[in-house]
Design a protein that fits this description.
This protein is mostly helical. The chain is built from 4 helices and no strands.
Length: 105
């Protein structure tokens, strides 16, 4: 094996290791997003059962600003996607709990 082939083989191992780490991180992100969504739905159910709206725009602005401060301008897009995913449709049990989902969906 010449030096070029050796370098490619070494780079391939590093790429494979890095991809495994990315895969692990993706699974963690998915788990965290599911947990975040579940907590968000709990909050939404509580607010709607008390006659409030599902969303609080001032709270969402704080979250967007946090993402922008940490990740730059693209953080706003990410934050909006996270908020949209977590806002989503409330499970049917939300209306059964006496709350009527209102506000932005």
């Amino acid at each position: 094996m010449d030096s070029h082939e050796n370098a490619v083989a070494v780079a391939g191992v590093k790429i494979d290791e890095a991809r495994k780490e990315i895969d692990s991180l993706d699974l963690q992100i998915i788990d965290i997003m599911r947990r975040r969504r579940d907590i968000s739905h709990q909050i939404q159910r509580q607010r709607t059962s008390e006659g409030g709206t599902r969303t609080v725009l001032s709270r969402e602005k704080i979250i967007i600003d946090r993402y922008v401060a940490a990740l730059g301008s693209q953080g706003a897009t990410l934050a909006l996607n996270v908020l949209s995913f977590c806002r989503g449709r409330l499970p049917e049990s939300a209306t059964e709990a006496g709350g009527t989902p209102r506000g932005n969906s």
